[in-house]
Amino acid sequence: MSFGLIINHNLGSMNALAALNQNQNSLQQVLQQLSTGKRINSAADDAAGLAISQKMQAQINGLNQASRNAQDGISLIQTAEGALNETQSILQRMRQLVVQANNGTNTSDDLKAIQEEISQLQAEIDRIGNKTQFNTKNLLDGSLGVKAADGTVTIAALTAAGITADVSGVKSGTTLSFTLDTTNKTITVSDGTTSQTLSQDPTNVKAGTVLNFDKVGLTLIFGANVDLTKYDGTNSLDGQNITTTGNTLSFQIGPNGNTTLDISIADMRSSALGTGTSNTTVTDLSKVNVTTASFDENVAAIDQAIRQVSDQRAQLGAYQNRLEHTINNLEAAAQNLTSAESGITDTNMASAMAEFTKDNVLQQAAISMLAQANQQPQLVLKLLG
């Protein structure tokens, strides 16, 4: 198709202008990508890519925050464990004093002086238990501990039989059921989801026996010889249960649901330590007294307190180790997901610079051609003389 010399429509100029506009739009887009470092700056750039990247970004933000939550948990655990380290040092000193007191060379005044120091140490254990805090939360006063509560078996009946149920590793609101096998001489504890069986003749559990059902979180401490088939003189523990109650600290250690870690810390004050022995006078650490109680009862209570504090520190250490591995996993997941998100949204600077150079040249060419096209109608003037 051929066109004569016309002045009402300059098709060459219109085509050059359209090309210039396209080049300018492309150049502006590339300039934005280069200046922001992002390939997707609006939904129009890549609608599907934007939707995918936003979901990834939500996960990345959640992973990073979960990592910070886990680090806060470690800080709390270190605070509690550091305080218990001092409590344990105090217990060691108390035991030394009790041994010192059981010596025929001591006078009554000597024993009073020794007891004065023991009383001060007991008070310091209580002060540590009452005042150890993290972000104003008490850690060692039992407010974060899970306790055994009555089920079909009452805790008072277990205590009377010389049995202490340490449920600090069990989630609050759990029902723990017992199964006795007198033939195979085993005891099984179940929380409804997990069961654990230990070898132990239920008809003859010796004083001082500790049964650690670590998979369930229960520890049974026997302060007296017990026949569990008639632990209270009549009833059997077989088929019976206890429940748990109390508060726990829950840490969100993942970006999505069902990714929490519950931490429980038992009461670490003197009245809660040293329990579970067969003692009749020194029933807990606060009752230790070298002027009124026997050496054997005093030492038994202190040794039991040392075991309780050691068990709690071991549990806290296990929590901390788990959280450290959790942080490593979260950081690796965040790094890998960030790399994937970067591949979708970030600008390939080399490719964008090549595109910028091309569009810049095309823009200059389009401007030049537009100028040439605008000169075409002036040829008509030569025809008009």
From TrEMBL:
GO CC annotation: bacterial-type flagellum; extracellular region
Provenance organism: Alicyclobacillus cellulosilyticus
Transmembrane segments: none
Domain Flagellin N-terminal as annotated: residue spans: 7-143
Known function: Flagellin is the subunit protein which polymerizes to form the filaments of bacterial flagella.
Keyword Coiled coil: yes
Pfam families given in the database record: Flagellin_C, Flagellin_N
Location in or out of the cell: Secreted; Bacterial flagellum
Protein name listed in UniProt: Flagellin
Family designation: Belongs to the bacterial flagellin family.
Coiled coil: 77-131, 302-340
Domain of life: Bacteria
Swiss-Prot/TrEMBL keywords: Bacterial flagellum, Cell projection, Cilium, Coiled coil, Flagellum, Secreted
